[in-house]
Amino acid sequence: MSGVTARERELLATAAQLFAQQGYPGTSMSQLAAACGLSKPALYHYVPDKAELLARICEAHVEKLAALVREVEAQAQATTPEARLSELLRRFLAVYGGARHEHRVLTEDLKFLPAPRQQRIRELEREVVNGFAAALCALQPRLDSERLAKPVTMLLFGMINWTYTWHRPEGPLSDTQLADLVKGLLLGGLPALGQAA
User: Fold this and answer.
1) At what angle do helices 81-98 and 100-109 cross, to 10 degrees?
2) Which of 26, 34, 129, 171 ranks highest by number of CB atoms within 10 Å?
3) Domains of the chain
4) What is the SS3 string spanning 134-187?
5) pTM (2 decimals)?
6) What is the pLDDT of residues 132-173, one digit of tens each?
C-alpha cells in the first residue's frame, strides 16, 4: 500500500475489523466514523463511500498476496521446487494469520462490489492461483500435461484459505509447522492422482 498514509491504513484496518465482525451490509458509515474517532464528514474526506472502503481493503490484501507470489517466483531458479512451495505456503499462512479481518472480508464480502471493481481483484486472485499452479507443476510436471494443475491448486487453497478462522501462530503449530503439514498432506497425496483421475 505505497502512497497510503498511516491514518488511511488505520482507517482500512478498522473498517476491515467492523466488516468482518458485523458484515459489510450491517456496517454503516456512522459506525465506521465513530470507530475511527472521526466525524462522518471527516471520514468522507478519506473515502467517497463504503464500497470504496471495501474495494481498498480487498485490493490491498490480494495485492500483498500477489506480491509474495512474485517475490517467491523471482527466486525460483535459485531453489528447489519443494522449497519454493514451502516458502509460498509459509508466507501465505503468515499473512493470513496477520490479516484475519481482511481475509474474511475478501472471502465473504467481495460480492458486494460492482463488477468493474471486482475485476481488478479477480485478476490479482488469478495471478496468485497461477503462481501456486506453476510451483506445483515445477514439483510434479504431469499436473500440467494432465490438466490437473488448477484443480490441485484449488484443493490446496481449500486447505489453507480458512485457516484464519482457527489457526493461531502462538498456538501449538507455528506458521512454518502448519505450512509443512499442508505440504506433507498435499505431497503424500500426489502419487494417488492417477487412480483418482
Assistant:
1) 90
2) 129
3) 50-191 (1.10.357.10)
4) HHHHHHCCHHHHCCCHHHHHHHHHHHHCCHHHCCCCCCCCCHHHHHHHHHHHHH
5) 0.88
6) 999 999 999 999 989 999 999 999 999 999 898 898 878 888
